[in-house]
Amino acid sequence: MIIVMGTVRIDPDMVETLRPAMATMVAASRAEDGCLTYAYALDLLEPGLVRVSERWTDRAALQAHFQTPHMAVWRTALSGAGLKDRDIKLYEANDGEAF
């Protein structure tokens, strides 16, 4: 399993403008083959901080995700929203254990 976690910082004044593009990106990504979970969360204490959380079955599914039309649209929307920083990392994991 592939886990993608991180943050994106955008201009806080652009959050509401970007919200429809975020919703479209999340919905389209969740419908992709190999997507187990896909979520964006706005941080409650840091305006403009978006937390990214994704789980994919494998690297091939993630690579296919990068080639989708909705990913291209998202990249364009994000670049026009005052992108200040991006810190996203990929981790390989097993299915984990419940505790």
Q: What would the keywords be for this entry?
A:
99 residues, alpha+beta, Alpha-Beta Plaits, 3 helices, globular
- Helix content bin: 25-40%
Rg (CA only): 14 Å
The secondary structure category is alpha+beta
CATH class reads Alpha Beta
Amount of beta strand: 25-35%
Average pLDDT taken over every residue: 94
Question: So what's the overall shape?
Answer: globular
Topology order in helix (H) and strand (E) letters: EHEEHHE
Number of strands: 4
Task: Write a structural description.
This protein has 99 residues and is an alpha+beta fold. 35% of the residues lie in helices and 32% in strands. It has helices at 15-30, 59-66, 69-79; strands at residues 2-9, 35-42, 49-56, 85-92. A 4-stranded antiparallel β-sheet has the order 2-3-1-4. The longest helix has 16 residues, at 15-30. The relative contact order is 0.33. The model has no long low-confidence stretch (mean pLDDT 94).
Summarize the structure.
With 99 residues, the chain is α+β, with helices and mostly antiparallel strands. A hairpin with a 6-residue loop joins strand 2 and strand 3.
Topology:
Blueprint: E1 2-9, H1 15-30, E2 35-42, E3 49-56, H2 59-66, H3 69-79, E4 85-92
Antiparallel strand pairs: 1-3, 1-4, 2-3
Helix pairs in contact: 1-3
